[in-house]
Amino acid sequence: MPEGKPRRLGRPRNENLDSKILQATRNIIEKDERVSIEAIVQESGASRASVYRRWPSLNNLIANALDEGRKSEVLIDLSGTVKDGFIAMFFGDLSVAHGEDYTMERFRKRMELAMSDPKVQQVYWSSYVEKRRKYPLQALQLAKDRGEIREDVDIDAALDSIYGALYYQFLIRGQDITSKDCRGRARAAFELIWRGMETQEK
Question: One Pfam family from the UniProt entry (predicted)?
Answer without folding.
Answer: TetR_C_11
